[in-house]
Design brief:
The protein is α+β, with helices and mostly antiparallel strands and 151 residues long. It is built from 5 helices and 5 strands, in the order ββαβαββααα. The mean pLDDT is 80.
């Protein structure tokens, strides 16, 4: 049985609003309420929000790589050509490559929710170490915390 940790991030219409946090983040919470829920059964497939975030993240990475001067090498006929990164090439060449090595499948639709975070963390660490490109993963909960004044 897995646990889900939730942080109180605000209130709307008299109801509390919680955001999921991992165990490392939970240690950094300054006295705000943390709710721990037990999760039974299979984890769900990646969410629609995670899918949109993956595509937005690949856009941020491709821009960062291009702005930093990193190019892809493609072979056309017998010549090697430097070309820029696109969100699609980031997803196809980097994200899916890491995902396939970790989970033995290329389709992002087969990712479970926790696997999206695992691929992102591995990819982010690699891009940071080798390319100095470090965009964060888009997260609506972080945006909500910022709007409510939590930082």
């Amino acid at each position: 049985m897995a646990e889900l940790m939730m942080q109180l991030v605000g209130e709307k219409d008299g109801l509390p609003i919680y955001s999921p946090v991992d165990k490392n983040d939970a240690k950094l919470i300054d006295g705000r309420t943390v709710l721990i829920c037990d999760i039974k059964g299979e984890r769900a497939a990646r969410t629609a929000l995670q899918n949109r975030s993956m595509h937005l993240y690949s856009s941020l990475v491709s821009k960062g790589l291009n702005d930093s001067g990193w190019t892809k090498k493609k072979y056309y006929e017998v010549k090697e050509v430097d070309i820029g990164w696109t969100p699609e090439s980031v997803l196809d060449d980097i994200w899916r490559g890491i995902q396939e090595a970790m989970f033995q499948h290329r389709s992002t639709s087969k990712l479970k929710t926790e696997q999206v975070s695992e691929v992102y963390e591995r990819m982010s660490r690699h891009l940071s170490e080798f390319c100095n490109v470090t965009p964060g993963f888009p997260d609506k909960y972080k945006e909500m915390e910022e709007q409510l004044g939590y930082k």
